[in-house]
Every structure is written in C-alpha cells, then in structure tokens.
Amino acid sequence: MTDPNHAIRDDIAFMRALAEEGRHTPMLGGPILLAAGLIFGAANGIGAWLAATDTPFSNGAWAVPLSGVVVFMVVLVILKVRYAGRPGAASPVNRATGATWRSVGWSIMLMVVALGLASWKLDDWRLMAAVPIIVFALYGAGWQVAAAMTQSGWLRWVAFGSYATAVLTAYFASDPLASSLISTVGLFALVAAPGYVLMRQAPSLIV
Amino acid sequence: MDDFDIERIDEVIHGRLRLGIMAFLSTAGSADFNALKAKLQATDGNLSVHLRKLEDAGYVAIAKSFVGKKPLTTVALTEPGRAAFIRYLDAMARLVNSPT
Lengths: 207, 100
Hints:
The complex is a heterodimer of chains A (207) and B (100). Chain A has helices at residues 6-23, 30-52, 63-83, 92-122, 130-150, 153-171, 176-201. In chain A, helix 4 packs antiparallel against helix 5 (130-150). Chain A is mainly α. Chain B contains four helices and three strands. Chain A binds chain B through residues 5, 8-9, 12-13, 15-16, 18-23, 87-88, 90-92, and chain B through 23, 26-30, 77, 79, 82, 85-86, 89-90, 92-93, 96-97.
C-alpha cells in the first residue's frame, strides 16, 4: 500500500533542497564548459598535429578548429534544451555566471572573425597568433567572475591558470606548434576539467 | 512519538501568497515587483501588503530604484528569511510525518 503523504514529503524535501541550494548555489553550466573544453581541445590538438605532419589532410589543418565551432554549437543547443530550468538556474549566481560565459563566448567568436578579417586585409596571418592569448585571457575573466560569485577558492586558481596560459601562448607566439600544444593542454585542463568538477557538484534533478 | 509543535509554524510565512513569495525567492534570490505579481497572480495592493509583512519580519529586503523614468521595485530574500523558510519547511515536514 502506498503512503498518501509520500508525495507531500517529497515536495517539501524538494522545496527545502531548492531553498538550501539558493544559499550556496552551485554553478551550473559545467556540462557546457566540459563540452567546450573537450571539443575545442580536441580540434586544436588535431589541427596542430595535421599542421605538423605531412598527411594528405595537412592542408586543411586550419579548418579543424572551425569544424570544432560547428560541433560545439550543435552540442550547445542540445545541452541548453536538456538543462533548461534546472534547480538553481534562476539564482543570482547562475544568472551572473551564465551572462559572463555567454559574453566570453560572443567575445571570442567576434574576436576570431575580426582578427581573421584584419589578417586578410593586411595579408598577414600572423595576427591570428593573438587568438589563443585573448581566448585564455577571456577564460580567466570568466573564471574570476565564477570564483567571486560562488566564493570558490579553487576557481580563482583556474582563473590565474588561464591568465598564465595567455602569457605562455604569447611567449610561444613565434612557434605555432608549441602555441597550439599549450592551448590544447590549457583547454583540457582549464575548461574541460573544471567543467567536469562543476558538473559533478551540480544538484541532481531529483531530490 | 509525535514531535509536531504548532508553535514552529511561522505565521509570517504561513499564508498562501507569502508562502508563494518565499518559495519563489528561495530559488530566484531576487525579483522585481511585476515579475512576482505575474508569477503569483496577485494584485498590486495585495502583493504590497504581504511584502510589507515579510519586510517587517526581516525576511525580504525591498529596494526602490528607477530604470529610465520608470520606478523599479526589487524584492530580495534575506539570509534570515531563507533560514526562516527552511525552518518552516522542516516544521511542515514534521507535520506530515507525525502520526494522525
């Protein structure tokens, strides 16, 4: 026989979990960052490998990161639909971090287009060496906001790591292979890995 | 043993509209007056009265500002308000669990 109070108890437990969660809201969006880190990291690594080796596909190495963007956009739409309206999504922490990471994404996309355009106009594609520098600087800003909003000390270290990677890629700007390898490691370690940790910390849908 | 105590039910929260306000703010953190009004299907006057009661208890903080020329009233759940809401839910859980 079923307990008639069971559903009420579950509802109260659910509301309590939401109220508690609002106090120390975990940052959502971990799956998106995990996907971004894995997809862009893999695309970057494959692109660097193709550029460094002599294969029939090596001439198309430049297109690999661009295909990464397309794959990520598809995954992003799927994840957004899947995780829409999750508990805590409307909390100030997640509104602020969500807006910040959206801005980071838009800034990166615009910066790549703008630098590509400038490189084409100047007929000097060395300008594109600035892409990973600016990308990691923006990631640093994203993580710094996330660290401040969630009051997570470890995210502050991820932000510093991103800033350091920006400087490191700048140092190796004259060596595209080294710069690409640093970016690949950076994407896995400073985007995918923290994204995975955040995903594990996020509350489940069922309390 | 019956561990339910009627005194533990917070009267400030225990009202349909005030409970709705607290439940909404417990996840949203803050909301503007019109969003709350729409969400809770309340009238201006009714919502104002209940918000004032919650504000008097220190459960919500109300801030008035302007966006352009339009006045904007923002309601935010305070930390004591969140703690009171959690206590209220715990009391309700005990009520449900207590033998009839």
